Amino acid sequence: MNIVVTNVKGGVGKTTTTMYLAAAAASRGREAVLVIDADRQASSAEWFDAMPLDEVELVEAPSERTVTRAMGRHGGIAVVDTPPGDERIVRAAIAAADAVVIPTRAGGVETSRVVATLEMIPSATPFGVVVCAARLGTNDLTETIQMWTAEKVPIWGVIPERVAIAAGPESRLSREGLEAYHAVLRRALRRRSA
Ligand SMILES: Nc1ncnc2c1ncn2[C@@H]1O[C@H](COP(=O)(O)OP(=O)(O)O)[C@@H](O)[C@H]1O
Ligand SMILES: [Mg+2]
Questions:
Q1: Which of 120, 135, 163, 180 has a Cα-to-Cα distance from 92 of 20 to 30 A?
Q2: What CATH number is associated with residue 91?
Q3: From the CB of 38, is ligand 1 less than 6 Å away?
Q4: Which strands, in side-by-side order, build the sheet including 33-37?
Q5: Is 159 in the pocket of ligand 1 (CB under 6 A)?
Q6: Distance between Cα 21 and ligand 2 center (Å)
Q7: Quick one: pLDDT at residue 4?
Q8: Distance (Å, whole) CA 17 – CA 156
């Protein structure tokens, strides 16, 4: 099972989402969990060096060839972090994905980047957006949710903006963040083919 976390835009929450989804998957204790870092910036790998996740392995695979290989070579759940700028790596990862998670932010300007990402996903591959660092109760968030709903784009999660999540590897993963990402993971895994 390969879950690819991607958005052509940077700074939306891809790496944070990757690490939380991997931790959530590992806490199920059912299958081996691998993070595949396909971003040359290696933010997931750096996070992992600073704060390894229990029962999670990490492999760096910052090229089309290495990411495709890594995704084909494990028997558990892999969560794949992708670079913002390198469309070829993103396309290679999406081509091998069993589910695609698209982190985004609330606000109209984010829409076109999500649409550009959606256009890369094969029609049979399940996908959902995750609204990251969401300010609960704001009009921006309400409008974003309404807009994706109207476009029939599934919303797999709304992750609240929290200092503990923004802390990244400087502190342990936040319980609230883990709970929110568990729900995202359940939605991604539900689409798993038999
Ligand atoms: N739920 C959240 N609450 C607060 N800050 C968040 C949240 N999710 C992500 N962030 C912050 O947003 C910034 C971008 O997130 P990151 O995961 O690095 O995005 P990307 O990998 O897409 O560049 C980081 O500073 C991160 O800590
Ligand atoms: Mg990143």
A1: 180
A2: 3.40.50.300
A3: no
A4: 56-60, 33-37, 77-81, 2-5, 99-104, 127-134, 155-160
A5: yes
A6: 14
A7: 98
A8: 12
* pLDDT of 193: 56
| pLDDT tens digits along 157-194 | 999 999 999 999 999 999 999 999 999 999 999 976 54
pLDDT score at 85: 87
User: Which ligand minimizes its atom distance to the CA of 21?
Assistant: 1
Which residue CA neighbors atom 1 of ligand 1 most closely?
A: 133
Parent domain of 61: 2-190
Q: Which atom of ligand 1 is nearest to the CA of 159?
A: 1
Count structural domains, the chain. 1
Please name the amino acid found at residue 69. Answer: R
Q: Is the CB of 85 under 6 A from ligand 1?
A: no
Q: Whose CA is nearest to atom 12 of ligand 1?
A: 13
Q: Which residues pair with 102 in a beta bridge?
A: 129
